[in-house]
């Protein structure tokens, strides 16, 4: 195997994006936030006023996604994440996006991919798989603090409800549900800050590579 693949999966607001970015930097690998591709499809439908269940429109939007152009700033809104989890249940959309994600992973020297189904579906042969989780309340509190720090005004209870609903939708869908791969290393960051989670992840990776 000439490329290295590190898979990081986990629920919404688990901190996997930040962790994946730091790992990519540390090991000199490319990084792909695969949630952005589902978000880009959702935003295209929302902008065009098309229903999120419109399979034909969703597949067309998925085909048009350019992984290198998905802008995290534009796609970060909570409503887009929520809408993304709705288009993510459409198998035909997943097939199109997974193919692009696999091509990205194959680009030397390899990549850290974060998402929901990287270790189970996108890159089942990844060199290292980490499943990053944290209690829903802890995740909601982190997300809430982030929003408040940026001057936003939102109820903690609304954020928590949002996260719980997204967990349910992501874990219970038929195609590629969120779950740890059998050979994933579980990392629970409920009682860790990002630096400790990063150190723990590096320990797992150094041991495996
Ligand atoms: O990680 P993020 O919150 O950006 O993902 C948005 C939504 O996209 C998730 O709630 C999930 O439904 C979907 N997704 C997915 N598979 C991935 C990444 C994201 O189904 N690999």
Automatic annotation (TrEMBL):
Q: Where does ATP bind?
A: 10-18
The record places domain Cytidylate kinase at: 6-195
Q: Name one GO molecular function term.
A: kinase activity
Catalyzed reactions per annotation: CMP + ATP = CDP + ADP; dCMP + ATP = dCDP + ADP
Residues in the signal sequence: none
Domain of life, per lineage = Bacteria
* Protein name as it appears in the record: Cytidylate kinase
Question: What are the entry keywords?
Answer: ATP-binding, Cytoplasm, Kinase, Nucleotide-binding, Transferase
Q: Which parts pass through the membrane? A: none
Entry's EC annotation: 2.7.4.25
- Compartments, as annotated in UniProt: Cytoplasm
Family membership? Belongs to the cytidylate kinase family. Type 1 subfamily.
Which InterPro entries does the record associate with it? Cytidylate_kin, Cytidylate_kinase_dom, P-loop_NTPase
């Amino acid at each position: 195997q000439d490329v290295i693949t590190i898979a990081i999966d986990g629920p919404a607001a688990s901190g996997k994006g930040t962790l994946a970015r730091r790992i990519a930097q540390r090991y000199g690998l490319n990084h792909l936030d695969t949630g952005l591709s589902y978000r880009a499809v959702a935003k295209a439908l929302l902008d065009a006023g098309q229903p999120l269940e419109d399979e034909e429109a969703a597949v067309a939007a998925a085909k048009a996604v350019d992984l290198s152009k998905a802008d995290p700033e534009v796609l970060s809104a909570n409503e887009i994440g929520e809408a993304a989890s709705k288009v993510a249940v459409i198998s035909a959309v997943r097939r199109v996006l997974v193919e692009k994600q696999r091509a990205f992973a194959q680009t030397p020297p390899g990549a850290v991919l974060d998402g929901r189904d990287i270790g189970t579906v996108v890159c089942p042969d990844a060199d290292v798989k980490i499943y990053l989780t944290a209690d829903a309340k802890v995740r909601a509190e982190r997300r809430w603090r982030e929003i408040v720090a940026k001057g936003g005004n939102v109820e903690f209870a609304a954020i928590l409800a949002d996260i719980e609903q997204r967990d349910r939708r992501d874990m219970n869908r038929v195609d590629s549900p969120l779950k740890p791969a059998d050979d994933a290393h579980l990392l629970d960051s409920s009682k860790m800050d990002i630096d400790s989670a990063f150190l723990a992840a590096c320990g797992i990776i150094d041991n495996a590579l």
